């Protein structure tokens, strides 16, 4: 079983739509959670960390559900510039705090 | 923007050549990582380092080696390149800020093609 699993999509949504991605992780000892954004043929860039109480950054909201071992990312009012692959990343102390990346979920925002 | 640099950005080389991919960061981070990523696929950790003179192999079996003689520098070497090594190689670094978790910052990557 993979450490981190994501629906690869693709998600094709119109501008202004709200879209949500989920990600599940297998290691119950995981402590750190992140969403990264990766544009085509570019490096991943940190979008936001995910905190236990959930957190928001502008149009982006991240939530963590430890009991069900999943994290989510909600994007409101989608912009064309949001088109990218969104990577779920998890790390745990019992794996030496290595970072485990999901395969990513592809989002295309359509005019 | 993260201060982590990789050279070369693109490299096309023949089979059997020895190559070194450079990675350096000016953030003073202790931890550094090398990942391999094929198009449309997930990142695979091939090497990491927790500090000077520390190197570990990652989950992906790799024929490459790394060294960490200085905090800011983490080069990756392939002794004999093969077509199967064709991929994108991403370097990252991280450091735990007090009270916060590690966050990884990535370099721009080296796109390697072995003919």
Give a short synopsis of this structure.
The complex is a heterodimer of chains A (111) and B (115). Chain A is mostly beta strands and 111 residues long. Chain A contains no helices and eleven strands.
Keywords for this entry:
heterodimer, A: 111 residues, mainly beta, six-stranded mixed sheet, 0% helix, B: 115 residues, seven-stranded mixed sheet, four-stranded antiparallel sheet, globular
Secondary-structure map with pairings?
The complex is a heterodimer of chains A (111) and B (115).
Chain A: E1 4-6, E2 11-14, E3 19-25, E4 32-38, E5 44-49, E6 55-57, E7 60-65, E8 70-75, E9 84-91, E10 99-101, E11 105-110
Parallel strand pairs in A: 2-11
Antiparallel strand pairs in A: 1-3, 3-8, 4-5, 4-9, 6-7, 7-8, 9-10, 9-11
Chain B: E1 4-7, E2 10-13, E3 19-25, E4 31-37, E5 44-51, E6 54-57, E7 64-66, E8 76-78, E9 87-94, E10 104-106, E11 110-114
Parallel strand pairs in B: 2-11
Antiparallel strand pairs in B: 1-3, 3-8, 4-5, 4-9, 5-6, 7-8, 9-10, 9-11
Rounded to an integer in angstroms, the radius of gyration calculated over CA atoms of chain B is 14 Å
Counting copies of identical and different chains, the oligomeric state is heterodimer
Give Rg of chain A in angstroms: 13 Å
Shape of chain B: globular
Structural class of chain B comes to: mainly beta
| Mean of pLDDT of chain A | 93
Name the chain pair whose interface involves the most residues.
A-B, 20 and 24 residues
- Tertiary shape of chain A: globular
Q: Averaging pLDDT over every residue of chain B, what do you get?
A: 90
Number of helices of chain A: 0
**Termini separation of chain A:** 38 Å
What percent of residues of chain A are in strands? over 45%
**What is the CA-CA span between the terminal residues of chain B?**
34 Å
Would you report the number of β strands of chain A?
11
Residue stretches of chain B low in confidence (pLDDT < 50, at least 5 long) are: none
| Percentage of residues assigned to helices of chain A | under 10%
Task: Give the count of helical stretches of chain B.
Answer: 0
Strand content of chain B: over 45%
Largest sheet of chain A: 6 strands, mixed
Helix content of chain B: under 10%
Number of strands of chain B: 11
């Amino acid at each position: 079983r993979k450490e981190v699993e994501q629906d690869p999509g693709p998600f094709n949504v119109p501008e202004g739509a709200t879209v949500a991605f989920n990600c599940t992780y297998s290691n119950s000892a995981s402590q750190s959670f992140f969403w990264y954004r990766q544009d085509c043929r570019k490096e991943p860039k940190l979008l936001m960390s995910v905190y236990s109480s959930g957190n928001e950054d502008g149009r982006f909201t991240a939530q963590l559900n430890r009991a069900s071992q999943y994290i989510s990312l909600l994007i409101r009012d989608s912009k064309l510039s949001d088109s990218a692959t969104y990577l779920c990343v998890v790390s745990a102390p019992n794996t030496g705090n290595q970072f485990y990346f999901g395969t990513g979920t592809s989002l295309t925002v359509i005019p | 923007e993260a201060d982590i640099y990789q050279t070369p950005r693109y490299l096309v080389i023949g089979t059997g050549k020895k190559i070194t991919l450079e990675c350096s960061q000016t953030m003073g981070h202790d931890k550094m990582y090398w990942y391999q990523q094929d198009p449309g696929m997930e990142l695979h950790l091939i090497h990491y380092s927790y500090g000077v003179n520390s190197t570990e192999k990652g989950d992906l079996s790799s024929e490459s080696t790394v060294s960490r003689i200085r905090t800011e520098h983490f080069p990756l070497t392939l002794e004999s390149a093969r077509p199967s090594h064709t991929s994108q190689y991403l370097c990252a670094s991280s450091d735990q800020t007090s009270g916060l978790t590690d966050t990884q910052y990535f370099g721009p990557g080296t796109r390697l093609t072995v003919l």
